[in-house]
């Protein structure tokens, strides 16, 4: 028995040195069974079965493909039979690793390395090599992961007394949260919700993912303290008295008591803020007020356009007003205001690009084209102090609402506050604007407004700048050749311009019951309705304190609007312009614009600035935790929850109310137009 084992082992040793090419002359069939049972390629679990298979394989007929190589080893016709394969079409055959002839054919096709056949095929060797490779990959991956987490922890952590492994665990969890946020930002289909934990001093802005994805994101941010909230709200607030002490000494106060004062405030969501505001004045020869201009400007695509319009719109309109012979001619004044808007927009959009194309240079383009490529909505109020006329010109979705104090019909001596809109949001949701654009672009009725936006991209239908919706295709292609970073025209861009800066102008004769005018960008109107804004300011003027709980009922708002129509009859507009507010269009798969129906909790604590009072109630009201959480979200994440907010509140006449401009500055804050 031991002798036979030695023979088998010696035969196996000789078989390991057999050359790769199979040659039956050098390896007779009488030794094939010994080679099959003792070679390393044989299965260790079933040696007898493998040996039997080897014997049977040598006696079977061999199947060769039609295109087998001519260098195949010579064989006799008695030991090999060629079987045709389905009219010359080659069919895949399963290779038998125990057949030496098939091993040779596979080698000629480049299937195995020579070293494997020289020593025989050993699955255990490959399994061992795979385990080693997997172990090396695991070790390398662990090292890289630990290194990355350590770097991430070092770059983002502050001084801490916790152990190294605790910091690693904490930063690993934060890294997972950041990765989830990046993933969710691509799959999120709906807006986020805000939840706060006042006991922990943190809050979690939760992004609800689409219904087909279970991924969610919750990032912990430190909530502002009450002191920081107050500091943030008061950062940009200012109030002014238009009537100074010297003017109060004048005998003829009729010329000076129309505008008592005004207050402003801005709270940014973008960084830097894209909103801007203005306040200009044209004085008479004796120094008294003649023409006063207030404006709020909601920029988009950057701040360049809104800043330029804030600086130059009032002077542009003032120049046109000088050409009006009779200031009591309302239509002539409206025409002059429109010309002032259009001439400034032509200067921003067309004159600059012609100068750049005539003398192409990047510094000139950067200084000239940025206001044209970006855009800005514009809302301007012009007050003719002598005639006591109020003109409101709107291009975009900012809004002006007049607060009217009327005697109560039920309670003698009491009064109520009414909201009279002096502008309407000009967006792709406004039926009047949709109808106008469809009439101006026949044949494009289905593409000029898509998803409530112009060509599916821009929401305001009127704005300064936005040259991408105004330039001709030829000019846009020339700009694109000079500056490849500029975006090419829209797919359905056929008959520009699609956006105009021509405003809708309203006129209103200021009466004693007209107490204040609220002008604000859409960041405020996304949170509060016009009636809520007027009621909040009116209650503040009446000296209301504490908190109030209100329910936003849209049916009740419709009833209130029907009662205000009589007051709206005092507002004059040009023929064809929108004269009353309608329900906005709600495109498919989009939520309605404006605040949702819900219970509101308002607070009354900002006695010195009505603009700050409105900002507070728009972002949280009586819910201090919600207010702190909303203000704590940094940009650009904050854009999910709020927009830039800019508010100007102008007070008319003698305010026989309990509110006084206690913190008002002595100067009127108006920029003089010369």
UniProtKB/TrEMBL annotation:
GO molecular function: [pyruvate dehydrogenase (acetyl-transferring)]-phosphatase activity; metal ion binding
Gene Ontology cellular-component terms listed: mitochondrion
Domain (PPM-type phosphatase) ranges: 259-652
The keyword Hydrolase appears for this protein: yes
Biased segments, Basic and acidic residues type: 93-111
Biased composition (Low complexity): 29-54, 65-79
Region (Disordered): 13-117
Record keyword Hydrolase present: yes
Keyword field: Hydrolase, Metal-binding, Protein phosphatase
Cross-referenced SMART domains: PP2Cc
Family as reported in the entry's similarity comment: Belongs to the PP2C family.
Designated name of the protein: PPM-type phosphatase domain-containing protein
């Amino acid at each position: 028995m031991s002798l036979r084992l030695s023979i088998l082992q010696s035969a196996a040793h000789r078989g390991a040195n057999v050359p790769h090419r199979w040659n039956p002359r050098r390896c007779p069939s009488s030794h094939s069974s010994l080679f099959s049972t003792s070679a390393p390629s044989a299965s260790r679990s079933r040696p007898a079965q493998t040996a039997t298979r080897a014997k049977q394989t040598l006696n079977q007929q061999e199947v060769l493909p039609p295109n087998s190589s001519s260098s195949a080893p010579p064989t006799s016709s008695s030991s090999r039979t060629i079987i045709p394969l389905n009219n010359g079409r080659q069919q895949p055959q399963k290779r038998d690793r125990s057949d030496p002839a098939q091993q040779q054919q596979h080698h000629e096709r480049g299937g195995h390395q020579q070293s494997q056949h020289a020593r025989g095929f050993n699955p255990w060797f490959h399994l061992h090599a795979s385990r080693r490779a997997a172990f090396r990959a695991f070790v390398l991956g662990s090292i890289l992961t630990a290194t990355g987490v350590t770097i991430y922890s070092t770059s983002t952590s502050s001084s801490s007394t916790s152990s190294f492994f605790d910091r690693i665990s904490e930063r690993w969890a934060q890294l997972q949260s950041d990765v989830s946020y990046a993933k969710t930002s691509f799959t999120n289909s709906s807006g986020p919700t805000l939840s706060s934990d006042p006991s922990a001093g943190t809050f979690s802005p939760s992004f609800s993912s689409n219904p087909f994805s279970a991924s969610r994101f919750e990032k912990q941010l430190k909530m502002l303290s009450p002191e920081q909230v107050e500091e943030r709200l008061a950062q940009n607030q200012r109030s002014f008295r238009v009537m100074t002490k010297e003017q109060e000494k004048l005998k003829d106060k009729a010329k000076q008591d129309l505008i008592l004062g005004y207050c402003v405030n801005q709270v940014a969501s973008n960084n830097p803020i894209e909103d801007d505001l203005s306040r200009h004045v044209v004085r008479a020869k004796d120094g008294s007020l003649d023409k006063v201009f207030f404006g709020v400007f909601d920029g988009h695509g950057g701040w360049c356009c809104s800043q330029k319009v804030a600086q130059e719109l009032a002077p542009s309109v003032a120049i046109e007003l000088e050409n009006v012979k009779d200031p009591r001619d309302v239509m002539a004044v409206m025409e002059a205001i429109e010309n002032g808007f259009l001439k400034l927009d032509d200067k921003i959009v067309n004159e600059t690009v012609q100068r750049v194309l005539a003398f192409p240079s990047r510094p000139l383009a950067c200084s000239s084209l940025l206001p044209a490529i970006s855009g800005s909505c514009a809302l301007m109020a012009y007050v003719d102090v002598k005639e006591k006329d109020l003109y409101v010109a709107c291009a975009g979705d900012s809004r002006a609402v007049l607060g009217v104090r009327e005697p109560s019909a039920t309670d003698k001596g009491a009064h109520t506050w009414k909201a009279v809109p002096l502008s309407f949001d000009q967006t792709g949701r406004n039926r009047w604007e949709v109808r106008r654009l469809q009439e101006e672009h026949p044949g494009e009725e289905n593409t000029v407004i898509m998803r409530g936006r112009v060509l599916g991209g821009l929401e305001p239908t009127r704005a300064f700048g936005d040259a991408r919706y105004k330039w001709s295709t030829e000019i846009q292609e020339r700009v694109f050749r000079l500056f490849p970073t500029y975006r090419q025209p829209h797919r359905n861009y056929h008959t520009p311009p699609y956006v105009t800066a021509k405003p809708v102008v309203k006129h209103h004769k200021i009466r004693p019951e007209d107490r204040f005018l609220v002008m604000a960008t859409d960041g405020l109107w996304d949170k509060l309705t016009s009636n809520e804004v007027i009621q909040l300011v009116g209650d503040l003027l009446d000296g209301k304190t504490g908190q109030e709980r209100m329910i936003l009922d849209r049916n009740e708002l419709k009833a209130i609007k029907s009662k205000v129509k009589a007051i709206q009859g005092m507002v004059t507009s040009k023929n064809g312009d929108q004269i009353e507010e309608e329900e906005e269009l709600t495109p498919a798969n989009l939520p309605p614009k404006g605040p949702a129906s819900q219970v509101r909790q308002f607070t009354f604590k900002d006695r010195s600035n009505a603009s700050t009072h409105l900002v507070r109630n728009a972002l949280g009201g009586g819910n201090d935790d919600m207010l702190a959480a909303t203000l704590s979200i940094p940009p650009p994440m904050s854009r999910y929850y709020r927009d830039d907010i800019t508010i100007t509140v102008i007070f008319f006449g003698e305010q026989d109310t309990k509110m006084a401009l206690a913190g008002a500055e002595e100067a009127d804050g108006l920029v003089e137009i010369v």
